[in-house]
Structure formats: C-alpha cells, structure tokens
Amino acid sequence: DLYDALLAPAGLADEARFDQLRDSWEERWRGVSPGAAPSSHALNRPETYYSRSLRAAQNGDVEAALADARKAAGLAPQSSTYQVQTGRLLARMGAHAEAVAALRRAVTCDPKDRLARYHLLSVLVAARRGQEALAEARMAVKAFPLDAPLLLLAASVMANNKARDDALLAIAQAQGLAG
Question: Cα angle vertex 160, ends 179, 123, to 5°?
Fold first, then answer.
C-alpha cells in the first residue's frame, strides 16, 4: 500500500519503528514525548511548557495548562505568544484582572500581535472595563485596519460605549474588506 511504498525506502515500513522514531523526534525537537515527562534538557525550553499547556487546555485541565503557560512565560517573558496563552487561560478561569495584565504584557512584547489585541479587548469587555475597552478598541482599529474580526469586535465595543460614529466607521471598514 501507499504507506509501505513511501516509508519502506526510508526504513520506516515497520509501524513500531516509525512510532519509535516519531517519539524520539518529538522528544528531541519539542522536548515532549507523548505520555512521558519532558527530558531534563527540555525543561529549560519555553516551547516545552507551551506545548504542554496547549495539550492540557485541550484536555480540559485548565489549572495544569495555566501552570505550564506561566512557566513558558517566565522562561521567555519577551514572547507575546506565551503571555497570550497565560492571559487566555486566566480569562477562562475568570481571573480577569490577571488576564488583562498578561495580555497587556503580550501587547507590549509585540504591538503587532493581533491575537494579543483581540484577546485583550475581549477580556476587557468580559471584565466590564468599558472605558479601557473603548480606548483599546480605538487603538486596535488604527493598528489593524485590515483585520475584519478585530474591527467588528472593536465596533461592538464602541457601540456599547456610546461611540456610535466610531463604531459605524469600523463596521464600514470591515465591510470594505469583504469586497
């Protein structure tokens, strides 16, 4: 079959051998082998904890996911990716003040990270911090004029905070992207 035809020349036709090599690759490159604790050299790498955080969150273990996200963010505090993951998990747990702080750090690390802005704006709304959300919405519209989902979220924030004209402009801008 196709599996054997493609993998046999590489010496990988044996599925057990293939699984062994895949697990070895994951341990070496990601520091995480399925079903096993990370190797000692991988514990110094933020991507190890980030990968574990994503997996734990996907499995519904938000507390373990948050612990690993915080470790990743601590090892690489300049990475917006790890700060965003921490903020998203904190928001999921209802810790809005901490989530806002983590997401603000993410925006500071990378002002061009649209997901950081999107999640920050979402958490500000969830935390009922209307004026901060409005200010962030206005910044997001200026910073990301080609991001329709962010423009629509910003328009919603603006409309809910009595900034009707700004909201209409953001909606028109998003509609213009749709063609």
Answer: 90
| Distance in angstroms between the alpha carbons of the first and the last residue of the chain | 46
pLDDT of residue 33: 41
Q: Distance (Å, rounded) from C-alpha 137 to C-alpha 151?
A: 8
Which tokens hold the place of 177? Answer: 């992207």
Gyration radius of the chain's alpha carbons = 21
Q: What is the residue whose two structure tokens read 């993951």?
A: 85
The pLDDT value given to residue 17: 52
59 CB contacts (<8 Å, ≥6 apart)? none
Q: CA-CA distance, 93 to 84, in Å (whole number)? A: 14
Structure tokens at 76: 């690489």
Quote the tokens at residue 64: 């373990």
pLDDT the model gives residue 10: 47
CA angle 148, 112, 75 (to 5 degrees): 130
DSSP string of 122-148, one letter each residue: HHHHHTT-HHHHHHHHHHHHHH-TT-H
Q: If the chain, 179 residues long, is cut into consecutive pieces of 10 residues, what is the mean pLDDT of each piece?
A: 44 50 48 50 81 93 96 95 96 97 96 94 95 95 92 92 91 83
Q: What is the pTM of this model?
A: 0.74
Give the position of tokens 């697990």.
23
